[in-house]
PGG domain-containing protein
Amino acid sequence: MDRMRCMLRFSEAQLLEWNSDLTTQRDENGSTPLHFAAALAQQSQRGSICWQVLEANSAALYQSDCNGLFPIHVAASVGESGTITMFLNKSPSSAGLQDSMGRTFLHVAAEKRKVRIVSSACRNRSLLWILNIQDNDGNTALHLAIQARSLRMFCALLGNRHTHLNLSNNIGQTPLDISLYGIPPGIFDDQISEAKIHFALTVVNARSGGSRRDHFEENYTRQLKYDETEQLEKAKEPTQTLCIGVALVATATFTVTFALPGGYKADEHINGGTPTLAGRYAFDAFIIASTFSFVLSVMAMVGLMYSGYSILNPQTRRIYLIAALYLGSTSGTCFLTTFALGLYMVLARVAHKSAIAICVISPLAVICKQMDLWLKWALLAQPLCTRIGLTRTLVIVTTRILFSLLMEFWPIIFIFVWATYTSN
């Protein structure tokens, strides 16, 4: 197969040496051979089809098809960063080529969510001059990255000080305006990328456009045709699944509460019928954890049931649903604590190291729920540091992460504080 490819490449090279005008031939869409080659994978190596065409006629880079797309736009559209690098090395000025809609290759990459290309362009000092080029609609690459709702592309652009944050497009929208109206209305998690993008722009003091905000809100509402009741109806199916989950947690906790580790004292002993391990620190913590787990899961079930009542107004149903989601998550944390403490009481005296290992490993399940949040803050940390400084960035990121951890782990803190109080 490799020998066959070498023969084909050799024949292509001979053909181009024989007639280099073939590189300028167009099909019915105006595409040249370089347009087709730019759409192929792994064309940045020496001897590739792109390389051979460029060697035969570097002017092919500046031929557009019927839609005004140049080969560099095609490479950006399919995410071939290596091919783009080869084009730029051959002719740096090709970076500024604009198609019929006024888009550079960076606009196309942002619109198509090609993160590698956008990130690479933002790190390349020779491409600083194209970062703020506006297309026919007045959009820069930053506008399009926000519209694409890509946090990684946004962070790459925000982290470059040469990216202007307050340019308005033809309808008066700055990146801050687009980020605000890009947040999906209704029931959403405030940790989604759209909310993080808007938060970051607010922190770095990005400005809104000069147009009237009421017009934007009117157009935004009409465009989305948002109906809160409809959104709640869509949430019914996942809430039914969640209701099953919290019901299982409640059932398991109820069962383990009346089947305590260590069993009960025999009737002929003092305090017969009471738990054998009663009075220990771990036992007190276990009881509080199981109580929290059961009560919170029941509260979550009640909230989910009320969120499905169509007789309630949408805002009330929304409140019940958000509360149920949080309570259900927290009940899972308490259930995990119950599991770890139960095993610790059983194993502590006979397998102390294993008991400790179980207590250390168990919280990992809770921490995993925060991984998405931490990754997003890690992405935002570098561009925020570039824009507002290290100290302020550390304060903002640390505060947010600690608050999320507190909201997740407060039951565990209370459980062990109460166990300490009752054991004294």
Confidence is low (pLDDT under 50) at residues 1-20. Residues 231-423 form one domain. The two ends are 78 Å apart (CA to CA).
